[in-house]
Write a structure and sequence with these properties.
This protein is an all-alpha fold. The chain contains 8 helices and no strands. The N terminus is likely disordered.
C-alpha cells in the first residue's frame, strides 16, 4: 500500500514501523467486548499478585511488557538495597551514619512506590498509542489527526521507561552509599539491589530507543538520545566497581 495523502513520507514510515513492532502485542485483548473486540486491562484498576503478573507477561496479551517488568525489577532492587539500611539503623555500631541511613531508607521507600506507579504508566502509555492506532484514516483530515496522535503516543511510550531509568539510577546512588556505611553482613543484598537497578536501566534504554524510533522530529529524537546517554554515563563502570568491592568484602579479601 502506498503512502496515503495528507501525511509526510517520514510520518508514514513511522506509522508502518510502529504497526510492525506492536503487531505481536495486539493479537488478543481481555476481557472481550460483546462485539468481539478487545480492550486492554489497566493494572491500576485491579490488584495483581506476582503469579498473575508473570502469567500475563508470559502470555500473548498486549500488556504487561518489558517496560512494566523493568519497573518491578527496579522496585525489587530498591527494596533489596533498603534492607541493608533497615538492618543497620538503630544499631550502635552504625550510629554515626544513622541519620543518613534513615534518609536512604525513606528515599528508597518512595522510589519503590514510584516504580509501581511507573509500571502502570507504561501499560497506560501503550494503551494510548493503540487508541491512536485505531483512529479512523479514511479522509486526509483523519489521517493527519491520526498521525499526530500516533506521534504523541510514541512520546508517552518513551516517557515511562525514561523515568524508570532516572529513578533506577537513584537506587544505584543509594547502593553505593549504603555499601560503605551499612551493615557489612547484608552487603549481598546491596549488590543484588544495585544489579537489579542497573538491569532495569538497560531494559529501559532498549524501550526508549524503540519507542522514539518512530518519531519524525529529528531534533526531538536527538534530545531523547542525549538524555539516554546522560543517564547511562558511567553506570556500567560504577556497577562493576561496586559489585567487585562487595564481592571482595564478602570473601574476606578486604576489610
Amino acid at each position: 500500500m502506498g503512502k496515503p495523502p495528507g501525511i509526510s513520507a517520514r510520518e508514514h514510515a513511522s506509522i508502518r514501523w510502529w504497526r510492525d513492532i506492536t503487531a505481536a502485542r495486539t493479537v488478543q485483548y481481555a476481557p472481550e467486548r460483546a462485539d468481539g473486540t478487545g480492550i486492554e486491562v489497566d493494572m491500576r484498576d485491579q490488584p495483581v499478585d506476582l503469579q498473575t503478573f508473570l502469567d500475563r507477561l508470559a502470555s500473548a496479551a498486549p500488556t504487561p511488557g518489558g517496560g512494566a517488568a523493568s519497573a518491578y525489577v527496579a522496585a525489587l532492587g530498591a527494596a533489596s538495597v533498603a534492607k541493608v539500611a533497615a538492618v543497620s539503623v538503630g544499631k550502635p555500631k552504625f550510629a554515626v551514619h544513622d541519620a543518613d541511613l534513615r534518609s536512604h531508607l525513606d528515599h528508597l521507600g518512595s522510589l519503590r512506590d514510584r516504580f509501581l506507579a511507573l509500571a502502570a504508566d507504561d501499560e497506560s502509555a501503550f494503551a494510548t498509542f493503540m487508541q491512536a492506532y485505531r483512529l479512523p484514516k479514511t479522509t486526509d483530515a483523519e489521517r493527519a489527526a491520526r498521525a499526530t496522535a500516533l506521534q504523541e503516543g510514541m512520546r508517552q511510550a518513551a516517557a515511562a521507561p525514561l523515568r524508570i531509568m532516572a529513578a533506577a539510577r537513584e537506587v544505584l546512588d543509594a547502593a553505593e552509599a549504603i555499601a560503605i556505611t551499612g551493615n557489612p553482613n547484608a552487603l549481598g543484598d546491596c549488590g543484588a539491589g544495585a544489579a537489579m537497578a542497573v538491569a532495569a536501566m538497560r531494559v529501559s534504554l532498549l524501550n526508549v530507543t524503540a519507542n522514539i524510533a518512530g518519531l519524525v522530529d529529528g531534533a526531538e529524537v536527538a534530545g531523547y538520545r542525549a538524555q539516554l546517554h546522560d543517564l547511562m554515563d558511567g553506570v556500567a563502570d560504577r556497577e562493576r566497581v561496586l559489585i567487585e568491592t562487595i564481592r571482595r568484602r564478602l570473601a574476606g579479601e578486604v576489610a
